[in-house]
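FIELD: query
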Amino acid sequence: MMNDSLVAYSTDIEKAEFYKKTYLHVALAIVAFIAVETILLNVVPAEMIYMMVGQRYSWLLVLGVFWLASFLATKWSMAQSRSTQYFGLGVYVLLQGIIFLPMMYMAMAYTGGGVVIFQSATLTVAMFSGISFIAFTSKKDFSFLRNIIAIGGFIALGLIVAGMIFGFNLGLWFSVGMVILASATILYQTSKLKDAYSTDQYVGASLQLFASIMLLFWYILRILMSRRS
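FIELD: result
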């Protein structure tokens, strides 16, 4: 039987256990992503990777499939069944591995190999840790970020789609803006963990945090790659 009590109304011990399990699953998702990405980079032919981004509308199709599958994975991660929750998280990790494949390949091939990836990962972890610390220690209410994140997300999505359709580069400042948006999302999600999830929904909570971390990593990597190109 799933416990449907909100974290905010649970005991201190239950809260601590929820946060422990949530961040453990975030760490496991990151490790799984590294493993999946390593396998994909070694087994997927370069020609297939180029096909993902080679045509104007091919990457748009990939993103569309990613969005739909991500929606389903997120829904599964919040299911009553624990096995379904893990299935959703596993599917989402695999999706992230696939969507990152072209950029990881280019980073390895053209911009200093693993160096730029390691630098991006280090910056991402440092920023995530700092933002999480602020969210847990600050008594400020970050609920005002919800509308900002929603509006910013729709604007960003529109610009991304327009850029792919009309073939223009969104440039460095767009990536900087997305880093800010991803950071705000992490801050909001972390501050609202206790109000948005029950004590048995740590898998779903970890998926949301993992998704925001990967968004932050994506645009930090883009920025560092643009500086080396």
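FIELD: remark
The mean pLDDT is 86.
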